Amino acid sequence: MKSIVVFCGSSEGTDPQVLEHAHELGAALAGRSIDLVYGAAIIGVMGKVAQGALDNGGKVIGVIPDFLMLKEVYHPGLSQLIVTENMHERKLKMHELSDGIITLPGGYGTLEELFEMITWAQLGLHQKPIGILNTNGFYNELLAMLRKMVAQGFLKQENYEMLLVDETVTGLLEKMKEYKPLPLPKWIQKDQV
Ligand code: AMP
Question: Which of the chain's ends, N or C, has fewer CB atoms near its CB within 10 Å?
């Protein structure tokens, strides 16, 4: 992996370990010469990931839509800032620039970005590793919900297992490095229905 996109909260949350993990992740990416791609903000968990990478000499590419840029919360010290016309273009750009995906704790925006990437993986549109940094079990309830979807026949077990989950930065990066993508899905033809 040469670059990883990180999705995470634009808020700081209440668990200080989340911010520590964010900084540690940025530093770990820099240490492995992996570029960080993210939403360009200086605020929240997002700002901490970027700072972790920048403090350790990493390359950080921020991708931000112009309407968020107007709020002047983008990080001024980024290696590269890409301004897009809207949120859809932003997500596509982040996808094009990255070889892997990591999600840290966050809110709606974080989940929306994560689930779009998993959905695209499930459809065979990409085969990148998708990791969740489950700091202090933050995502346990979400993972339980996904297992319920498997149990009730809405989600395939193999697609559930596509998600790589770990409570530590190094453990997660190791799992992503070892990840073997599923074979591309075979589409059901109209005449087979
Ligand atoms: P959330 O998980 O709801 O905090 O949202 C994270 C998402 O919202 C990411 O896509 C962020 O890039 C985006 N976002 C929210 N506020 C800002 C901001 N002020 N600057 C940049 N991105 C933001």
Answer: C
State whether residue 133 is helix, strand or coil. strand
Q: Give 117-168 pLDDT, tens digit per residue.
A: 999 999 999 999 999 999 999 999 999 999 999 999 999 999 999 999 999 9
Q: How far is the CA of 165 from the centre of ligand 1 (A)?
A: 22
Q: Residue 27: enclosing H or E segment and its boundaries?
A: helix 16-31
List strands edge to edge, sheet with 130-133. 80-84, 60-65, 35-38, 3-7, 100-103, 130-133, 163-166
pLDDT digits (tens, 9 = 90+) for 39-54: 999 999 999 999 999 9
- Phi, psi (deg, nearest 5) at residue 11: -105, 165
Ligand 1 centroid to residue 39 C-alpha, Å: 7
